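cache lookup: miss for this entity combination. No prior model stored, computing from scratch. Input as submitted by user K.M.:
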Amino acid sequence: MILYVDAGTTWSKVCEFSPCESLFEDKFKKYLKLTKDNRKYYIIPSNLLKNAGFNFTAATGHMSKINLANENNYMNEVIALSKGFLVNNDKKSGLILDLGSRDAKWVKFNNGKFKDLDWNNSCASATGATIEMLLKFYEVSVDELEVTDEKYNITCGIFGLEKIMDDIANGEKANLAISKFLHGIAYNAWSFAKKPKEIYLSGGFCDNKCFTDSLSKYVKVNKLGRFVLLDGLMQEYNNLQLH
Amino acid sequence: MNNKKRRIIGFWGYPSLDLINKYKSIYPNHEWIDLDIDYGCPKLGILPDAYCKIVKNMIYNAIWLKDRIDIIIAPIGKEKCDSGWFAAKLLKDMGFKVEESIYEQLTRRNKISISTSNLPLRKKFELITADIIEQKHPHYEQSKPEFGFWGVPPNDLSVLELFPDNTHVYGWTRCVEAGVPGDIELEMFVDKDVPTVFYAQAFCAKTQLAKYLADKYNGLYVDIDDMVTNSVKYKIEAFIKLR
């Protein structure tokens, strides 16, 4: 069984190479998102994966070293993102922004040549885990979020959370307050990436329409989905021509 | 630090040569201790948590070694920072004997050899800082720069081990080797075609210079508070590998 993993803090993205059913598929069938040729793509809660006892062929991400059969097959996340972007972008030019559970990182290329990068890994304000917690706490579904013109200033995530709580206490609907928070995250992400005119977006926020619509107020957004780092990882370790 | 219980002359930054020579003459058998360095002494909570780690080292090392220190030579001019000036006042107020030093001269210059050598980057920093008190100025084999590291000696020197040996030193550390720690023109000099990491200690005023120069020369801006985190290591590793 060949398994590649982008093991994030809360969610792990896994690609399994297997022509038939496997022990892995048996265990994680409910998390299977996509099947393509002999490849099966899963999105699995990281805490389940960590304790499942599977060894991975190669890995990237915050939690990956735990389950690696050979720790030399670990790839730095920014490098995986870069390689995944180049696999997914014929022009080999542009800026790829990955928004994860707890961090944001971007890399810029021009004709396949590295130009610039940054990685914000300290502040939780610009991350998906905060949004997931807010949605759970206020019992709001992602579909209930709607784009707002107003945005919270969330340079500091703690102040942003305080603003949500204040506004909801004063009668604001929770879905609108969280939407304003999301708008603030979108604006911060764009500013963090040095305000480009076009962004290729990677990560779980690709599935959040309110976020991508908010970001589109500032920049042209191309969604590449949640498997970009996996593509980079597989390209490196299997020399795959994925697209 | 020498483990023998010798009496100590404490200093930080780059004291004036006249004062160094004066106190070598007064205390010929004393050990010179660079209070900037993190020796793992107890954290005393005297300074705010969010404050420059190097200045915390200066104050906490001094208090930790108080029984052995006879004099602290305290740079307070442009070759150090306002925090050095404040630290000198605080330590005097705590009962230390402190001699303030201003060393802003620009004429008495040493030839640069370590910064541009092929020695490991960490070794370069260790030699340059050791040279402040015991000036030797040997010639080292030179290298063509593949990368640059701009900044002060980091609190966590292990970050320097990420770089190849043909990484040249810029910024304040290069000024120290040149014997002109207050030379802002030399501090802002870089080889513009050399990919350079611009480092500053978090909460240090030099973050202003580091961020500006990183943007100007398309380098990588990095600030680190205490010890380097894996994420910062990966960011630097990606910058080096993607170039």
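stored under new cache key. The mean pLDDT of chain A is 87.
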